[in-house]
Structure formats: structure tokens, C-alpha cells
Amino acid sequence: MALIVQKFGGTSVGSIERIEAVADLVVKTKQQGHQVVVVLSAMSGETNRLINLAKQIDARPSSRELDVLVTTGEQVSIALLAMAIIKRGHSAVSLLADQVNIQTDNMFGKARITDVAATRLKHELEHNRIAIIAGFQGRDIEGNITTLGRGGTDTSAVEVAGAIGADECQIYTDVDGVYSADPRLVKDAVLLENLALNEAAELSRIGTSVLHARTLEPLARSRQKVNLRCSYAPNDGQTLIHRKGANSHSAKIVTSVDNVVLLELTFTEDFSNNATALLEALACSHLAPATRHKHSETGSLRMAYTCELVDEALAKIDQLASQFHIQKIERSEGYSLVALVGAGVCDNPQQCYQFFQHLAEQPLEFIHSSADKLSLCAVVRKITLEPLLKDLHSHLFKQKTKLGLVVFGKGNIGSQWLELFSQQQAKLEQQHQIELCLAGVFSSKAGHLDFTGLALEQLNSSEADTALIWPELFDKLKRHPYDELAVLDITASETLSAYYGEFARHGFHLITANKHAGASEQANYSALQQAFSDHGAQWLSNATVGAGLPVQKSIQSLRDSGDEIHTISGIFSGTLSWLFQQYDGTVAFSELLADALNQGLTEPDPREDLSGKDVQRKLLILAREAGLQLELADIALSSLVPEHLAALTVEQFLDSMSELDQSMLEAFNDAKRQGKVIRFLAKVNKKGEAEVGLSAIDALHPFANLKPCDNVFAIESLWYKQNPLVIQGPGAGREVTAGAIQADLVSLCKSLK
After folding, report:
1. Cα-based distances in Å from 320 to 205, 214, 265
2. In what helix (H) or strand (E) does residue 651 lie, and over which residues does it extend?
3. Could you say which of 225, 252, 618, 676 is catalytic?
4. What's the confidence (pLDDT) of residue 384?
5. 554-568 confidence digits (pLDDT tens)
6. pTM (2 decimals)?
7. Is 618 marked active-site?
């Protein structure tokens, strides 16, 4: 269960029909088991109507009284939505900003939130109510009503989410996220599933209508997820704003701002220092220009502003004119801004060249690259932007995403995957329009690392040349040249799993067959999940349980669709499956175990399989996928290895395996007398009751008759109550496990398109 804040803009609640649709969406979220807080704008057009009424009284109405007037719009929308939710049988309460104690400064019309004391809000949540809050407004220290200005409802939502420790803030508008270009102008623009926080901030600074810069400030201080979605089609897609330090070297977005105003300032002395100091002062007042150009020879500074911000910026410059020796200020209108936005765009020579080439034929004023290299901005005299944007988008974004792969583990499964990757690389690149580069392959001590790419022949014919020393290796990996980097952990190393947090913090995606992290302490597991989410990286681990069987994906899919997992049970070990399918009491269990060892069906130390610890870890991983917060110690384990045999060396144990024969025979015969068979089972229910061990089951039970080495998983849920969802097939082996790794890589490629 998550705590979710949902914000809906004016168009989303622009009519009674739209309010009813929003009520359905909110109730659906509640029915999925989440706590919900809703933040609303006024109905579409209502704020403008109220402002027009005020201006019929006074062309320049009192800013305080205007705030009192316009906040009534939100009071109407929150009450109507509360009524709609109550009609649907759920408890809801509408709350004004002062009831939630949203404190602001006293800047009427553009106030900034200083504090959110969420005591009342937490009280309503504790009583299982859906709280519906008026956005866009607050109260100053004297109790005066204030409004937050442009993007105010978004800001309210993010601030409230931070105050109550929400897991996620969903911003619903009339579009489903951020696109690579304005989809109204560029029809082949694509929805961006992920956008780094600094990239979103740069879009806001330029003046695009993604999220206001003030909305992003509290987001930077909290750990909440922020998703941008469309209220008209909530399931069609979304853009996740994440905290990953974007490591790409290319633009993601072609954007534009129309009706730009240029301010040209002339300085009387010390142009360079005064111009720099003025820009810093404007930034401190949240009045930084969208872009600017210094002309040292003439001692002039040109700054581009949106119409919304220019008057306030001009007033501030007037205040500072004498301090910074500004001789003249000229204002010119009739301009447009065109920009490329994305981490490292200024370091991409191909995109810079294309941008300059396309702008060379336009009535160009100047081009400026941002100091943080997040944008390349051009100011042009006003033109029809659509053809230019289409052409830029077509030439810039037809390039493939580059994904680097670094592999840890060259054993049976790792070698198999390398062969599989080599066979499928070209097909995968073509299908998903992605460029894949095998950059590194490491064993436990050393390996190969080459960002230009490695071939299988190179791996087989040359000695490892890069030591596996983690601080040094991280330094090398974080300087990779790709758009994205993925680490593939095809080991059973607990030491390697300890670095997963670092992978996440560097924004590296992770594909793993290693069970240690997924079965680690709950606190560590949750922290890892949060770290990958915060940094916009993916942690794919379907190979940890069931090899290539889609067990985890099925559980995820059921939960995402609103189902509830009641029980997960089955046979999770291919080795133990084989042993007990073969064992019939006529051949000693130790002889059968020796046969399995010789065939490579067990670990070199068979006790790794017989102890049931591997099955225990797998069950914990699935339990957590089902939403349970369990520790390994919460799963009762009945090992097949007596304590005195567990204490022996591997060689001693292999010589003493016959000591298992009598207990196994007794268990077999006891079950046979009841018309049953023995199988090594795992089970967990929704109460968190879990156990792993040898069980006697009916001879006709679905778990009783498997093919050798098969795993079987039975998932009982709200929807699969009478007839459980059964997934059965090979659950071990180099080929199927390598296939599961490859399937996760395919999933990653799809998401990066």
C-alpha cells in the first residue's frame, strides 16, 4: 500500500462530467489499497472569469482582495469532487489551504510556501478518508489568503506530498507527460518515460509549460516520485521525473517558446563583472532569463524573457540599475526561442552542428549554451516555428540510443548468455532501434573493459587486463560514453550484491540472476528499490526465481491490474525436483544424489541444494514481489541436512552422504502408506506465514507429477481463487537462465526507446 497524492488541473475538472471521471479515477486508486490525497485546481476558465469580474470594478484591483476572490474557484471544485466520491460509497473530505495549514509569505498573487503543517491531513488519512485539498492557495503569517501564481496547484501538490511523506505524486493534466517535441506541432514526437530532475528544471527555466520551477524546488528536497499523466487517458503513458544525474550526451527534447521579449542592457563600466553580478542577482530573485548573450565589445547584455516574467524582471533591473552601472535598457518584442534540452547536449558535436545548420537560415539573433550544458538556446525574430521544429526533430532524434553492457560472471550461465547475446545482438538492435555495446566482462578478480566494444573472440584469446578493484572500476564506469549503462550480474556473489546501491546512485541499470540482494534484510531491500527509483534506473531480476519462467512478471502484472495475491506455493528447485521425481525407495538416496552431482544437476557442494536455503531465498523474493515485508528468518526452513553433516567439509560430506538414506526412506515409506509422495515445497500466504521443507502430498496433486528438473509455481489470488494460476517448466539450467537474462535485457531495451 502506498500513499499517493494526485493533482488535477483545471481542464481535468472543467465540467461535471470531468469531475465524475476524476472521481472514478481517485476511487480506483483507493480500491487498489492506496491512501489518497487529491489536490485540485479551479474548474477550467473559472479563475479568469473571477479576474475579469474584479477588473470590471478596478482595472488594477487590490492584490490582497484579488487573492480572496480567485481562491473561491478551488473551493467549488473540491466540494464537488468530495460529493462525487461520497456518492460512490467512499469517505471523503474537502479542505481549504488554511485547514491543512499551508503557510506562505505575503507576496499576494505569487506567494511562496514556507511550511505545510499536515496534522489535520494525517488525521483524515488515519480515519481512511480521501482528503481533497484546494491547490494554488495558502495563508500568510497574519492569516491573509494568498495565491501561489503560475503552476501553483502543482507546487501545492508536491509540497503536500513532501510534508506527509507520500510515496508518489501524480500530476494529471490534459497531456500524458513530456514529449520529445510539442506533439501538436510534431506528429512523430515520442513520450519520454523518464526525465531527470535537472532536465525538467531546465525546461521550466526556459519557459516551457512542463512544470514550474517553483514546483521542482520541493521535489528536489523530498524522495517522492513525480509522474506526469493525462486525466483523459490515465493508462496511456506517463513521464517519471527522477533524481538520476542524467549521464547522456544528447538532447532529449526540441522545444520552443513564442512571444519572447528581448531586454538589451548597456553598461557604463566594468561590463564583465557587472553583467555577471546582475545575472546572479536576477537568479536569486527567481528572475533569471530564459537565455542571454554578452557582447563584450559593445558592453551590452541581451536577455530573453517570456511575456509572463518580463515586466517583473524589468522592474527588478530598474531597481539595480545604479548599483550595476546600467546606462540604458531597451525592450524589443516579436521574438521566439528554439532550444535543445538534455544532459550533455552541448558536448554532442553532431547535434550542435545540426542545430547551428538549421538556425543559420533563420532570422537569428544569437545562440547561447547554458553553463551546465543542459540546453542550447537560439533567439530568432518571430517566425512560423512548426516547419523548423519538425525538421530539427527529424534530423536530431533519428539516432539510436546507445546502451553499454558490463557483465560480471563468466561461468556456465555467463558464457551461455554471451553466446546468446552474440547471436541476437543484431536482431535486438534492429527491433528496438538501439545500439548495444558489450563494454566489459569480468570474472571474480579481473576482466576486460573497452568502451569501443568487445568481441567474443577477444575475450577468449586475450588475458584479462582490468583488475576488479571497485573504487577504480567505478571511476571508469561512471565516465562511460553511452546514453545508458547496464550492469549484468550473472554470479552468486554476495560481495557483488553489496555494490547494488552504488550502481543505482550512478544511474546504472541492473539485470541480475543473483539472489542475495533480493533476499537481504527488508531495510536494505527497500533502500535499494528506492535508490533505483530515485535515480531513474531499473532493477530487473526475473532470472533470480524460476530461470526463464515468467513468475515475477506474472505477480507484478496481477498486482498492477488491481489483483491481490493470497498464496504462492510450489517446487522452486530444479535439483530437488529431479531428486524426488526420481526417488522411489529402490535406489539409495545417496546414490541418486551422487548421480545428480555427476550430471551437474547439483552445486559442487550438494548441501547448497539440500539445505533448502536457496528455495528459502526464492520464496522471500516472490513474497516481496507480492507486497509482503518479510525477512529470511520469517520463513520456516526444514533442512534435509542434519546439523552434524552440515559441519563437515565438502569432501567429508560426500563420503558421508549414505547417512541421509535411512531418514529419506522413512519419509518415503510414511508417505507411500498414505497414498502420497514426498516433494520439497515452498509456500507463503498473505498473512506472511511461510515455510520451506519436505512435504507429503497426494499422488494426483499437480506438484506430484513434473518432468525432471521442472519448477512449478501456483499463484492464488482474488481473481484466481478457485483455479490458481500455474506456471510450470524448467526452473534451472544454463540455457533457460541465460534466456531469462536476455529477456530482461529485451525489456530494458523496450523501455529505453
Report:
1. 22, 24, 12
2. helix 650-655
3. 618
4. 85
5. 999 999 889 999 999
6. 0.59
7. yes
